[in-house]
Design goal:
Endonuclease III, domain 1, Nucleoside Triphosphate Pyrophosphohydrolase, 2 domains, seven-stranded mixed β-sheet, elongated, DNA-binding
Length: about 375
Amino acid sequence: MGRAAKPLLHPEKEWIEAIRETLLDWYDKNCRDLPWRKNKDPYRIWVSEIMLQQTRVDTVIPYYERFMSTFPTLESLAEADEEKVIKAWEGLGYYSRARNLHSAVKEVVEQYGGEVPQEPDSISRLKGVGPYTAGAILSIAFDRQVPAVDGNVLRVLSRLIASWEDISKNATRRKMEELDKMLIPEDRPGDFNQALMELGALVCTPLSPSCNTCPVRALCKARKQGVESELPIKAKGKPPVPAKVTFGWIRKGDFVLIHRRPTEGLLAGMWGLPTVDDKPSESAPGETIKEMMSRLGFQLELGAILGEMEHLFSHRRWYVTVVEALCSDYDQLSPENYHWVKESELSTYAFPNVYRKAIKLIHKNQRNPQGIQGRLF
DNA sequence: GATGCGTGGGC
DNA sequence: TGCCCAAGCAT
């Protein structure tokens, strides 16, 4: 309130020059030695940019190394089975990234002879390549003067020009792209874009930025106005929606039944325990899983409640009941959608986070037959 | 423009 | 501990 909301969209030439020189000089001395910075192979850059979407560098590095060993070239990824690609992605989250990347790489082979297209319009049409990723690949791999505005750049630029606009809005991102365009030097577009991101990651951090060691502190309007800790403005998201779900724990000897989830929605296409959403009105836990199984064409007898737990996604809060069940006509299960896996290997076949927690809970309760442990509600 | 989509780390 | 966040994109 009462703040000037108008960002500096026509910065002075001297300011632009100073930002460029200072930032590039700082980047030359301080840029991290990251595996995707070994060379400018557009495929390597591409994979890194997809993995880094909403994901921290430290988390990405081991996945990236493994992925590049498994699929060292664009062609090798294009030829791979989707199953194998998803497997390599397992644990990283946002699995549509992997499916889109796989699909896009195949398109590059088919439509562009295996060469990553260098035109903004062409590369932006590839699945999973949005404004940021297109700009990142074009500037880093091909030295094109194209903006690459991610969360870091939004924050850094907001502070540099003391902008009070909400960075969660699309319109703000577009304005910042215009500003970035004015800043990117002709000779080193990729380094400059990375320098902005690197500054955001290492110095101009969301909480308590290290202004005292910042190379561009003398050029920063927010710093000059003493409002660096108030910026950027970012509207808060909605709280996770609560939902009750039931996991079926269906055994055959040493094996446990897993199924493939629907190809759309939460954890799309991932293997996991049979899962149903409980309708709030229904009382008996597990009743709906029986309904689901019978709808799919086989009978099920419900057993004990093995445990209850809570799991938090960014947008959903799951209250989970794990129910033991006995299936009498296993042979009707379609192998396309159902697998029997060894219990000991379940956490590597299935979704490696929610289910790991569930399995731990189940084992704990099996060791304590006198009563359910870990009851949360 | 708003919403759905994962996970792990930091305070 | 319960949030907030981290190199976004598709719909």
